[in-house]
């Protein structure tokens, strides 16, 4: 559960309606192409037969809110979050990230769970800086079109055997996401070769609902 100050706390009242509205605008998509530009993405690369590398590109502030307080308004969530002390902020961030990691699942073709390890997230101080930046810009009226850039979150999935086919599940809080998967093909190239080097791409995946 979200443990930030309640909506009626002084930190909220002191800012007033205008700042609340500006924060909502700062964290909302704008323009016809906003949804496409902000689409989160997951790339899965089969590095070895039993090793799949995961790389998420996500807008972490929006993900943080969906994980901790999906029903709260942007202002009721981000303003108390920005005012937390270091220990409270680190605890909230760790709780959100643990929930996300627990909701990611990969299974091989035989239904066996793959081991997910080596999660790598941006440093907490970077997240805190972005939260405070959005709130401060909103309070001075400069945040109407603030779009924090996606951050990279990576992990490794290990299987007991070959992982040529895997079943993926993500937590509901992840939201819509583009998923890209591939296995790198490696060939040698010599500058003195006469014939061009043929590059072959795999067939597109079968679409499922």
């Amino acid at each position: 559960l979200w443990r930030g100050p309640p909506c009626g706390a002084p930190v909220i009242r002191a800012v007033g309606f205008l700042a609340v509205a500006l924060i909502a605008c700062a964290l909302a998509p704008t323009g016809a192409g906003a949804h496409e530009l902000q689409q989160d993405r997951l790339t899965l690369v089969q590095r070895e037969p039993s090793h799949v590398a995961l790389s998420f590109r996500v807008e972490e502030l929006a993900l943080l809110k969906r994980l901790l307080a999906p029903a709260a308004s942007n202002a009721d969530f981000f303003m108390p979050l920005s005012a937390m002390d270091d220990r409270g902020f680190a605890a909230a961030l760790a709780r959100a990230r643990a929930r996300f990691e627990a909701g990611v699942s990969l299974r091989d073709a035989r239904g066996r769970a793959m081991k997910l390890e080596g999660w790598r997230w941006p440093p907490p101080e970077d997240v805190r800086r972005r939260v405070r930046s959005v709130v401060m810009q909103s309070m001075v009226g400069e945040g109407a079109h603030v779009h924090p850039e996606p951050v990279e979150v990576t992990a490794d999935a290990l299987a007991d055997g070959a992982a040529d086919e895997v079943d993926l599940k993500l937590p509901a809080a992840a939201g819509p996401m583009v998923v890209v998967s591939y296995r790198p093909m490696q060939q040698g190239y010599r500058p003195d070769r006469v014939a061009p080097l043929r590059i072959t791409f795999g067939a597109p995946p079968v679409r499922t609902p």
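The first helix runs from residue 10 to 13. Residues 173 and 195 are 50 Å apart (CA to CA).
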